[in-house]
Amino acid sequence: MAMAFHPLAASRVRLAPLLPGAAAAPSPASVAAHHHHHRRRFSAIVATAAASATTEFDFKSYMGSRAEAVNRALDAAIPAGEDPVSLHEAMRYALLAGGKRVRPALCLAACGVAGGREAWALAPAAAVEMVHTMSLVHDDLPCMDDDDLRRGKPTCHVVYGEPIAVLAGDALLSLAFHHMASVGSYPPDVDPDKHPARVVRAIGELARCIGSEGLVAGQVVDLEMTGTSEIVPLERLEYIHLHKTAALLEASVVIGAIIGGATDEQIERLRKYARSIGLLFQVVDDILDVTKSSEELGKTAGKDLASDKTTYPKLLGLDKSREFAEKLLSDAKEQLAGFDKEKAAPLLHLAYYIAHRQN
Amino acid sequence: MAMAFHPLAASRVRLAPLLPGAAAAPSPASVAAHHHHHRRRFSAIVATAAASATTEFDFKSYMGSRAEAVNRALDAAIPAGEDPVSLHEAMRYALLAGGKRVRPALCLAACGVAGGREAWALAPAAAVEMVHTMSLVHDDLPCMDDDDLRRGKPTCHVVYGEPIAVLAGDALLSLAFHHMASVGSYPPDVDPDKHPARVVRAIGELARCIGSEGLVAGQVVDLEMTGTSEIVPLERLEYIHLHKTAALLEASVVIGAIIGGATDEQIERLRKYARSIGLLFQVVDDILDVTKSSEELGKTAGKDLASDKTTYPKLLGLDKSREFAEKLLSDAKEQLAGFDKEKAAPLLHLAYYIAHRQN
Q1: Mutation for B interface: A82, A86, A177, most B CBs within 10 A
Q2: How far apart are CA A129 and CA A94, in angstroms?
Q3: Of A277-291, B82-96, B200-214, the least confident
Q4: Which of A44, A104, B39, B329 lies 20 to 30 angstroms, CA to CA, from B115?
């Protein structure tokens, strides 16, 4: 494997203590190979992260408790059994299908680092997950990516039909804004009656990241590129990822920071942090695509590069892609330097998680 | 024709001066029959409106100037030729296809009656039209109502394809909220920095009327009813109309009133006004469906009642439907009684227009 030659490979020994529970549980049969692979693949990224490896922070328990709180908020936001039943069922099916709730966690963590109580940002955290789910439901439609499975379950339109899937997406999108604008979604000390300016600003951020400057723009260009046999140029690949992935991660962080009472200068630093981890998220996705295929199919990485989908490894090669990921993680960390170390720990470890995740 | 026997038919002489320019221009060949038909058909409704027939108010010029202002705002809200070009083109195609801009006019007029300058509500007025357009684009999709034509032009998915139509709808929906939340969309004396609480409340109203309590709920139940050969019960028909049509008219009025600085008591009166004209809008639509068919096909109204679509005339008969429309117009007028007569003139004449329109 090419990565064994990476100059920073020696630093891999610090990986295990850094990421308690961040990797999904692999099947027993694949544990050994997986672990070996895991330690090597992210060695470059880990080099820059190693300095913080001593921080005491239980990432697994942080993510677990936040996901639980967000899931409760999402569950309460959509009535079960109320008219129209099929619509509410479809919304709940898509929204409560599990998932790691990375975007809500970013939102809550950013609220905390800005000096707020994380609970202030529970409504926006639920809202960003609603928006994320809407984009998945619409992107999975037969006329789009035509996906039948999502997280191992049949997709929304497979279960409820296309019309309900389109409409459930629309309803989730509007519910996100309703949730953001409702006094009842917030603790009393930060509700829209007390801090309307924060709420308006946060709503504007959320709205911007969805449409023709965000998720939708990314999906449009992705669809345009899918039809052709041409290689997507790097600039276009970055456009897709910045819009389809990074925009909502950026909004999640910025919205949390706004609700938490961040200054403009803090918001801009957190925005830069979020852009870096947003692109990092996608670069890692691309690396996983290639290296996972190598494992599963017993093919060399070089063969995967010949597949149809344009990825960072395909355009840059695997080593340069890892270096790029390393650079993005380092950029993200840099933006957190000025914040209180303890308060910034969740955002720091979310960045590590995004860099090191296995799926 | 049955309506000639209506007890209030004699009042029809007052119709012409009441509605300058409200009816769409008919083809020369149909003018005589149309006019005759027109005068008779709405005689019942006009009876209650006749008392205000002397009001000086140039409805045609009011609607023309407001539509122009709203069209300018909509045109400015979506860049032409910017990346992704196909998406922006599709959004502009759907949004700038003409139409009477009834919802924006209601929004502006409600801002005025609440004591605001109408220009304050230009951003929300544009936003409600974006939401309306989104609902048309998605409802027209092949998997929904499968409509190829809208206002005499090919529908969005026919021109740009299904994926872009779905995504253009999503982008219009998020743009509506972005527009509502942006300082630059408002005159400086009422922008979100000055009146954030008004803007948050208005955004909450807009969001609520779209999803599972509004447009989407109405479309879901409408789709459910379309498949069956059963007659839709009156309660279900009203559910569809209150959600699919009235909810956005209500939001248009209430949002305008909120931005205009209305008191809670004023907002509730205007909300009742809007609910009445919202349902009126649909009852009149149903009456037009039946009576237009009668004319065009030379069939009696009774024969049209046998058609598949459940309408108010089908459930109540034509006379009772007209009485219901009359009652709704009268209810709407009643809610305007406490407001300054001159400031309330646009909303009053919008109610007349909705009652008397020909398409």
Answers
A1: A177
A2: 11
A3: A277-291
A4: B329
B178 touches chain A (CB under 8 A): yes
**Residues in Cβ contact with A27 at an 8 Å cutoff, skipping those fewer than 6 apart:** none
Report yes or no: B316 at the A interface, CB cutoff 8 Å. no
Give the pLDDT score at B56: 78
Could you give the dihedral angle defined by the CA atoms of residues A141, A144, A149 and A151, in that order, rounded to the nearest 10 degrees?
-100
Asked if residues A177 and B175 have their Cβ atoms less than 8 Å apart, the reply is: no
Number of helices (H) and strands (E), helices first, in chain A?
Answer: 18, 2
The DSSP result for A270-309, as a single string, is: HHHHHHHHHHHHHHHHHHHHHHHHHHHHT--HHHHTTSSS
User: Given an 8 Å threshold on Cβ–Cβ distance, is A175 in contact with B207?
Assistant: yes
CB B242 within 8 A of CB B280: no
Distance from CA of A264 to the nearest CA of B (A): 15
- Kindly list the domain boundaries of chain B, sorted by start residue: 57-354
Distance of residue A263 Cα from the nearest chain B Cα, in angstroms = 16
**A-chain residues near B134 (CB < 8 A):** 170
Asked if B174 is an interface residue toward chain A (Cβ–Cβ < 8 A), one would say yes
CA distance A220 to chain B (A): 7
3-state DSSP assignment of residue B220: helix
Query: How far is A353 from A339, CA to CA, in rounded Å?
Result: 19
CA distance linking residue B110 with residue B343, whole number of Å: 9
pLDDT in tens, A274-307: 999 999 999 999 998 888 765 554 434 443 445 5
Instruction: Tell me: pLDDT of A24 over 50.
Output: no
H-run or E-run covering B149? strand B149-150
Give the architecture (CATH level 2) of A57-354: Orthogonal Bundle (1.10)
Report how far residue B87's alpha carbon sits from residue B171's, in angstroms, rounded to the nearest whole number.
9
The answer to whether the CB atoms of B173 and A170 lie below 8 A apart is yes
User: Does A203 contact B141 at a Cβ distance shorter than 8 Å?
Assistant: no
For the cut 70, the answer to whether the pLDDT of residue A55 exceeds it is no
Query: Residue A352 is encoded by which pair of tokens?
Result: 């590590």
Q: Which residue of B has its CA nearest to A171?
A: B211
Per-residue pLDDT, B33: 42
State residue A292's pLDDT score: 76
Written as one letter, the residue type at B357 is R
- Least confident stretch, A67-71, B207-211, B300-304: B300-304
Rounded to whole angstroms, the Cα distance separating B272 from B63 reads: 22
CA distance B54 to A306: 78
The Cα A38–Cα B209 span in angstroms is 49
From the list B104, B35, B89, B71, the residue with the least C-alpha distance to B252 is B104
B172 contacts A166? CB cut-off 8 A: no
